[in-house]
Amino acid sequence: AKKLRRKPQSMDNQHIRKFVLTGGPCGGKSTSLSVISSRLEGLGYKVFCVPEAATMLFTGGCRYSSWNTTREVTFETNKIKAQIALEDTFVAIAKQCGKRAVVVCDRGTIDSLAYVNKETWSLILDQEKWTNASLREDRYDAVIHLVTTADGAVNFYNSENNNTRSEDVDQAKALDQRIMSSWMGHPRFFVVDNSTDFTGKIDRVLNIILHQLGISTEVNSWILKRKYLIKINVPIFSQYLNKNNFAIENPGSNPADTNSFSMETFESEVTFLVRGGSEEVIDHKQRGHIYLEKRGQNGVNTYKITVKHRVKNSEDMEKRKMEGAISGGGKYMVEERRISGSEYVNLLEQTDREHNPVKRTVFCFMWDKHYYEIKRWNSTGFTTMKTDKKDLLGEGGKNLPPFLSVEQDITGKSAYSAWRLSFRSEPNKEKIKESKL
Question: What is d(CA 208, CA 21) in angstroms, rounded to the nearest whole number?
């Protein structure tokens, strides 16, 4: 008799998608929140907008005439606690609203990192037993950074719509970079710059949200990051690794200089589960796969489960898109959710023994206003990179970080996917070797 398997716990619990809009001053967050609410409510969603805790505190009189470390720790700690309480309250109410719900936050907990130095931040984390991961990866499904208009659209930068804003143009640009560095490393991190007019910028924000929910009718090419096979110049790369997080302590310096370089490093392990573990999510007649990812930094891990399955036709795809937090394109649909450590351990019982765990070291950083994610695949010896920067090969390596060179564009090539690389059988490994030549 066929052994019945327990459905993954994360697929049984109601999951409210929670997104963050962040960025430097005068970036367009308020307008984006309004547009997102209007559009999603028109599609049948109930949208909950969590206000920014800092603005509430400032307008309520929580200001010091002068600042010292004790006051900084007190203010930022309680600001984060207020933000967490607000978010948890909105999520709890959203779960009982009786409709598909989305929570959108005006800034998030890790924004505080941009406003204090490294020593003060360490005091806050130690005092509250928090970690960067618990305040960043553990809390949000996606993060959208709206670049301040002071960087690229300076004629539109002003402080008239926010009485708590006091930064001049240079200060706004420096703050924007620090906020960007604070969120760097989140697995769903998007940067929306000022390369279009303001209406285009807001449309890009909306399309990211729609794409994450799987209800986008047209995915703009800039949302889909390109994937490349690369080579790393280890001596030069080591110099940049040694400068890790220096940018947060020295805001406003040249981003192309090693003295201002900031990088987040993670260890990732992907484990594939047997198909059919959840009849609600994956049809036994359809091929697809389910996998867990453990992502660790400084001894602290976060966990997620991803279900990828093939859909039969366009009607099935549209039906599944509207059933919940499912995204994707082409012939596959993808559902991704954050899970707890205990759920992760329980789900490991469903490990597919035909596949090895796939271990990767992940490096995340900003360069020339573009976001890069490098993965060093420990079992194969090659290195891949994803970025939102387009036409890298056409530019001949122009404006690339000096510690890497691009060998080929491998976007969409399954030979370099974790699924293909996890097979225990030797024939697949030989295929990978051939594809590298």
Answer: 11
Radius of gyration of the chain (CA): 22
CA dihedral 201, 202, 205, 207 (to 10 degrees): -100
pLDDT digits (tens, 9 = 90+) for 343-376: 999 999 999 999 999 999 999 888 877 888 999 9
Comparing CA positions, the residue from 231, 259, 233 lying closest to residue 245 is 259
Amino acid making up residue 364: C
Do you know the residue count of the chain?
Answer: 437
Average pLDDT for the chain: 80
Question: Of the spans 28-32, 421-425, 430-434, which averages the highest pLDDT?
Answer: 28-32
β 226-232/101-106 pair status: unpaired
**Mean pLDDT, rounded, for 81-108:** 95
Q: How far apart, in Å, do the first and last CA atoms of the chain sit?
A: 46
The residues pairing with 358 across neighbouring beta strands, listed in sequence order, are 270
Placement of tokens 């700690």 in the chain: 77
Q: How far apart are CA 367 and CA 404, in angstroms?
A: 12
Residue type, 225: K
pLDDT tens column, 153-201: 888 888 655 555 678 899 999 999 999 999 988 989 999 999 888 888 9
For range 223-230, the mean pLDDT? 81
* Angle at 40 (CA atoms; ends 34, 43), nearest 5 degrees: 145
Decide if 60 contacts 53 (C-beta within 8 A): no
What letters, b where the CB count within 10 A reaches 16 and e where it falls short, cover 377-395?
A: beebebbbbbbbbeebeee
Compute the distance between CA of residue 79 and CA of residue 63 in angstroms, rounded to an integer: 12
Element of type H or E holding 384:
strand 383-387
| Cβ–Cβ under 8 Å, residues 136 and 121 | no
For residues 239 and 246, the answer to whether their CB atoms sit within 8 Å is no
Residue with the two structure tokens 């996917």: 417
Which of 228-237, 270-279, 313-322 has the weakest average pLDDT? 313-322
In the block, which residue shows the tokens 């929306």? 192
- d(Cα 391, Cα 382) in Å, to the nearest integer? 21
The residue among 197, 209, 173 whose CA lies nearest residue 26 is 173
Answer whether 107's CB lies under 8 Å from 20's CB. Answer: yes
